[in-house]
Amino acid sequence: MSTTNLTDFRDQYIARAKALLQATDIANADSKTLILTGAVFGSLDKVINAPLIGRDTLALFDAMTSAEIDTWLADAAHRSAWQRLCTDEARTIQVALQDDLLRPKLMGSTLAWTDIIASSVMQTWIQGKAVYLVPYIAAIPGCLTLTASSRTTMDKFASVQAAMTLIYASANWLNAIAANTPAQDAIGASLIALRELAKSSAAMNTLYTKLTTIMVFLFADAAASVDAWNFVSSEIAAGRTTLASTFFGDAGVRNALHGNTGITTALTTTASALYQWLFTNKMTVFQRTYAASTAQSGAAIGGKILMLAMSGAYSAAGPSYFYLTGTSSQSLQAANGAGYITLTTAHKAVGSQTGPLYFTDASTGSYYMTLGYLVI
What we know:
The protein has helices at 6-23, 31-49, 66-73, 76-88, 90-96, 102-108, 110-118, 120-128, 130-138, 141-148, 151-158, 161-168, 171-178, 181-188, 191-198, 201-207, 211-220, 222-237, 242-248, 251-258, 264-268, 273-282, 298-313, 327-335; strands at residues 283-291, 357-361, 366-374.
């Protein structure tokens, strides 16, 4: 049976050649028969091992659909040849992926794209073409899923700022990232990706539930966390508090915030919507008394009451963190903290309502301070 399909030709040739060789009586064959059958044997080996996909035969994909390419590559010999091509002749694949006809067919083929992203040579090229490839990958669901589920590939995209900007602007990409842990891990490992994430309202709203894999890393970075909190604050100002509630409800995020000195300003600006929300939802109010001579200055009294209140309410080894607003209050802390607990990044007082409120009971000579601890 004649055919223009190279797979059919190969299979038919192998079957015919094997039948011819098996039918030959080597012991009784004359010299001419031995020479001919030897030639057949040699050609059989070449046909069996010949790469059926190469610079020329790649053009066969022009006439195929993605499904037909998958069928073609399901053949073990074809698949092996294709994998070699992705590594040894990667330039051919790179050219094909920039061809408007071949690109969607190769991206739409599960087997073809699987082998492309498995090639280290192609991975390097993908990083260099990340911005170019982002929209095309997003348009093909199967290709997008394969890409988002490949940590190696996502590391390449996560290292390119412009590519991540495009990815965060794409609903398809964001949904794929939300569904694939490797993609989330790649973002969490890249400061470039994290900082672009913090600037994108669409990305923040889609990915904030992935706290352990993305947001903990985001809030551990000073630059990204400030951008993120500014966004959270704008959400609160608009009456949307879901993100803030989720973030403060996650221990990993809280721990990341506690070690991040860059976030202090965003958390302690009393005029911000974020601080007002924190004050309403996270503030615990205490009243403490300090008995002292009326000759002492009000500033010194206020500072000592603050320290007494802190030492009386919490131990230095406790898990809570505190933020005290206002430079005057912070000065009191610094000037009057001697002899009391040391407030470190693991246990800091950074604020009360509008500053420590203290007053004198003239009848007893005692001074009182009402403190609101912002506990996160």
